[in-house]
Amino acid sequence: LRTFPHISTNMTCLYLSRTAIEEVPWWIEKFSRLHWLSMSGCNRLQSVSLHISKLKYLEKVDFSDCGSLTEASWNDSSSVEAVATDIIHSKLPVLDEASYSFPGNLINCFNFKFNLDRILLSQPQIDYKSIRLSGEEVPSYFTHRTTGTSSSVTNILLPRTSLCQPLFRFKACAMVDSKSSPRDGHFEFEIQVSCRFKGRLGKHFDSPCRPHKFGKLKGIHLVIFECCFPLNEDNAAQAELNYEHVDIEFRLSNLIDTTSKLEGVGIRLSHEFPSPE
């Protein structure tokens, strides 16, 4: 298969992995019911139309191992800003601003040498449930980062209004190393994130652990995702106890491959998100 298929636009899933397709055309937008697009291993894929961002039901996009993709592959006759205004959107209740989709899996796209810090800073409206890509360093965009193999970010100063909000939000990045894995195929793992809010005189309260599931291949990869912890009325009342800091802990869980490990984590609190211009 060398060209994007002219098939029913009522499809909800398209599995086009390891084909010789060279372009995702502008009329991808006609697949209005599409939830899942897999094009991993399409080594001849060179161009993806930004019209893919008009698919409001699209939940998962996999362009891993597409070795010919570059940052220029995402250039389009329509500007990102213009595309963003057409999106009706998001299933995530915390993302109410206009946003556009970003590919969720860019693992082993070695020619895709974009500056992730620039992308995240210049496009605050970018929409993703998670992004996975090859990388061996937590980007500086994440203002609170660990050193070495620590999996906890501690003593983060909280803005006064944090615990008065219905949601405590932050963006997270975890660097997962599975180079020593005996498994060569695709496998799933889970990152559990928990928070401890700390105040004066040793007072604290713990949030429930929130699991985030991912799939990956052998190697060192970055996973970037958004965390959202509901704060109920009881927790909101805790703000009166002058909680000033938060510890955020990450735990990697993988029952199939016990050799994988966290090599670094980073977070960026919601009040540090850049504002759309």
TrEMBL record:
Domain of life where this protein originates: Eukaryota
Signal peptide interval: none
Pfam families with a match to the protein in the record: C-JID
Protein name: Disease resistance protein RPS6
Lineage, broadest ranks: Eukaryota, Viridiplantae, Streptophyta, Embryophyta, Tracheophyta
UniProtKB keywords: Leucine-rich repeat, Repeat
Every C-JID domain range: 133-211
InterPro entries in UniProt: C-JID, LRR_dom_sf
